[in-house]
Amino acid sequence: MYIDRISLNNFKVYKGSNTIDLSISPGKNVSIITGNNGFGKTSLLTSLVWCLYGKLMSDVDERYKKEIYECGGYKNYCNRLINRITLDESETESKLIETKLGSSDEAERQGLRQRHQNLYSFSVSIRFKKIFIPAIPCNDLELIRTYNVKSQTETLAVYIDGQPNELTKEVGPEIFINDFILRKEIAKFFFFDAEKIVELAEIRSIEDRRSLGKAYGEVLGIKKYLDLKGDLENLRLRLSKKNSSAADREKLEKLGKLFGQNSKMIEHHSSIVHEKEEELILKRFASDKFQEQLIREGSSITVEELKDFRQMKEHLQEESLRLKNRMKEMMELAPLALVASKMESIRNQIETEQEQKDKKNNVSLLKRKANALKKAITVEGLISGDRKREELFLLIENTLLPQGVIVPKPLLDFTSEQENRFLAVYDNLQNAFSKNFKALTAELKKQQTSVAIINRKLFDGESKENDPVIKVIRTNKNQLDTEIKKQEAECIDIKAKIISLQNEQNNLSLQVSELSKRVKVEDIDKAKDEVAARLIGELETFIYKLKNQKKHSLEEKILQELHVLMHKQNFVQKVKVLIEGDMIDIELYDADQRQIDKDSLSKGEQQLYATALLKALVEESNIRFPVFIDSPLQKFDKEHARNIIEDFYPNVSSQVILFPLLEKELNESEFQLLYPKVTDCYLIKQKAQYESGFESVNPAKLYETYNNTIQHVYGN
Question: Is 269 in the same domain as 361?
């Protein structure tokens, strides 16, 4: 399929009716829609997603979910989609109509009412060609979504060959779009911002992997076979219930009833959660508004922050006391630090006295040894004669004992403990004292500054909290925040119930399956049951093989695309797709079979990887839907940009629509590489503020027309 025409009526900057006619032909499948920043490129892309999915667009991409939340819900979001000038004109015209209604006849009043009803509305329509719908002849299909900001009502019309169709009425237009045009779960692969595509390379959490796995299952066509298997299992269950014995039938009936009740309870709880989450969006939005009012009134501090500041103050006071005690201890040593030269003299004196003590101790020891030696000589009678003995004793004393040694009286006479204490203080003063003193002083100053800041904030907060206006706003905000916390807790409880019910459903399903095996099926239904059982078995085998086939095919295609797009030919040598139940993950390996951490890739490399993944998925899906790319060629060098232009854009789909910013995201030389594939070009021109329109441009004269427009606007 391809898109033949897009029409916007009063959508954002597009005042009035604005239409783009697109076309494709053999060898030419790329359309360029360009304009300056703020002129409406992204608004056009948003209009397409809104036209297809309406309030379900939040399921397409996180960006839309965030925008809807920041607006305070879907209705408020739609109120901002209408063109501002149109809204002002509608207000003026509405007053005129109300004035005329009283003085008009019935026929004129009916026309005025119809005219009044059409005010405050905006719409987007998309016309498809070559779309295939089973069992329904279809040359073209048109979607028209309209929203009225006054009545806050939305309508979606689906026309097949210009006429409403019973199928769309029967299943509903939203389901029709999801089933026959493009499922919302995979729309992100066809409407994407090339700069933000790196999100595909940043899948980390289990929830991200499960969400992506669901989208991959849709894209790769696996889900429809799983649904078919589920339908066949339900058929067998119905046959079993119909043909079971009285006891088994009663048990099956009971299990089936319980299963049905659980399904309804899950649906009911899911509906409640959805409603509560919608309410939470509005309440959080209102809470943010109260906070803005507090800021405007001069009280930007919250109650929680006030409590935190008080706790921080207490902590800082305790820390300050600890630092002051440390400073007090250090200040006791400060006088000693001031007389460092005296301390040096004392240390020298201690060393001198220690040497003197050592000498005195040595002399005493030698005297004892000499006396012991003389005593031994006398006792043993080794020397006869007193004279010789006296001469020997004198020789011993002169040899062993130092002569003329005078040990002065010690000045300090420190004990060993006193010496050790003094030397410890001295070493502290010489080495760590100065460094620690400076660090402690700096830390004290920092503490004092922090205390002063906290005190100032507390003073401002506490003084302004007494303001009566702020008190009222604060009370309302606190009440609302309490409700939000309570509702968040309720949502968590309900989600827990849903998980419990889902687990119970799985157990019931197993019980039904086991019970069904024991049930005797009548001949008339036996063939049906056997066929269903055989098909379920074949489907299980087929799904297993399909998953492996898709897995290997996806691995090959991703690797092939990486080699085409990346200039580092040997960088990625292997791609591994991991499928675990409903989760999927993709791993990259280098030439040495080492896994490549995707977080270590540059933003440009991550974008190339995500681009290769996107191309592989689109090819594997066999879904023929146009691909829309905003902000192309972001973060690419020249060589990679050339690969993207020549190998990716023309081949990613049978119809590709690019939204580049000329010269910045697509320069003229790059456009020339793409030119042989280009079929249509449109320039978005701003006629006035909040009023843009489309100008069809000959592709050969795109840059000439663009430059002339720039010169006209800026007078260069």
Answer: no
